[in-house]
Amino acid sequence: MSRLLRMEGIGKSFGQVRALNNVSLELDGGEVLALMGENGAGKSTLMNILCGALVRYEGQVYIDDKPVQIGNPVVARSLGIAKIHQELQMAKEMSIAENMFMGREKCNWLGLVDKKAQEEEAKKWLSMLELDLNPHRPLKSLRVGEQQMVEIAKAISLKARILILDEPTSAISKQETEQLFRVIRRLASEGVGIIYITHRMEEVFEIADRLEVLRDGEYIGTVNAKQTDRDHIISMMVGREIKDMYPKEAVPIGDEVLRVEHLYLNTPQGSSSRPLHDISFTLRKGEVRGLAGLLGAGRSEVFECLFGVHPALTSGDIYIEGQKVTIKSPRDAIDHGLSFATEDRKGKGLVLLRSIGENMSLPLLKKFTKGVVMNTGAEKVEWDRQMEAMRIKAPGTGTLAGTLSGGNQQKVVLGRWLITRPKILLLDEPTRGIDVGAKAEIYQLINNLAAQGIGIIVVSSELPEIIGISDRILTLCEGKITGEFMRGDATQEKLLSAATLREEASA
Question: What is the pLDDT of residues 110-123, one digit of tens each?
Answer without folding.
Answer: 888 888 999 999 99
